[in-house]
Amino acid sequence: MLNDYVRIMKARGWMKKNIPFLYTWHAYVGYELDLYEYFRKPKTISEVAQAYDLKLDLLERWMEVGLAIKYMKKMPKGRFRTSRSFMLPSGKKNPRSTGVILKEMMELHIPALLSYPAIMTTENKQTFDHDMHGGVVAQTSSLLEQAAYPVMHQIVKKKGAESVLDVGCGHAGYLIRLAKDFPHLKLTGIELNEGVANEARLRCRDYPELNIECRDAFEWNYAEKKDLVLINNLLHYIPHEKRPDLLKRASSWLGEAGEIIILTPMKHEKYGRQFSSVFNSFFSAFSNLHPIPGEGDVKEIAEQAGLHVSSIRPVIKEGGWFAVRLVK
Ligand SMILES: C[S@@+](CC[C@H](N)C(=O)[O-])C[C@H]1O[C@@H](n2cnc3c(N)ncnc32)[C@H](O)[C@@H]1O
């Protein structure tokens, strides 16, 4: 009897723990199909289903969940509208929409975590498809810019830097911010993924002095020395044993008084353990992505590259995201 009661309580506990999933699922579907935008003004479900060619029964189900979690609101005459839009992701057309984080979580992170039983018992890890996911990942990485850019701004200003190289620059968000704040800076970005590099060039079109090259950091060579080299959110693309080589190359592009800044999620005793552990679980599900470093690993690879760690500071404490500064 007691056993039955415990079973029920346990099952109830798991179901309750999973309720937050409803919110992310609803927001993900709402973002993907622009449903919050369609219901910005009160509309009936069949009106929207017809106008946008959506399955009526599924839209009804999505609406029921929305009403239950209060993301949607019932209006007179059988109509509904989006409620709490200030908390919800804006439409897909907005390149700054936070919906990309839902897309990355739902389409990449959760499926990868669900593959654990299969990949843990076989030789077959998944392969991360850079062409398919590169754009979304570059977009979600740029959400960190707001928090991390001030670190770069301060260093450029304090050092009186004249040139900056961004390795794995993604959509060039940091370079564009630097170009706006320091018009004299000579700015270069290298980016491996062609689609991402093209998008970066498009976004840089108002800054002709900002140069984006579609190149592999391990094959790129440059004679002119840089004052600052940025390596932002790149380490998990590089196997641990190749990281000293990347830093050696970065060091060779650096002037004597230059500095390398690495922005990376990191395993840390104190900060962001939940986030960094789940990030690591995600990266490890792919044969071509690699675990994030711990503080000791960063010091070790820096030493192997003949560099010195001058500081390690959290940028987003709860997310376990750090800025590491390296000097020669
Ligand atoms: C997660 S994104 C980060 C983008 C940007 N640095 C940021 O922090 O917003 C990492 C980028 O590095 C690029 N990348 C990976 N390996 C690279 C390599 N060997 N050389 C140049 N770029 C690389 C990827 O294509 C991807 O766009």
Automatic annotation (TrEMBL):
UniProt KW keywords: Methyltransferase, Transferase
Pfam families, A to Z: Methyltransf_25
Domain Methyltransferase stretches: 164-258
Gene Ontology molecular function, alphabetical: methyltransferase activity
CDD domains (UniProt xref): AdoMet_MTases
A single GO BP: methylation
InterPro entries, A to Z: Methyltransf_25 (IPR041698), SAM-dependent_MTases_sf (IPR029063)
Gene3D superfamilies recorded: Vaccinia Virus protein VP39
Protein's UniProt name: Methyltransferase domain-containing protein
Organism whose genome encodes this protein: Metabacillus mangrovi
Upper taxonomic lineage: Bacteria, Bacillati, Bacillota, Bacilli, Bacillales
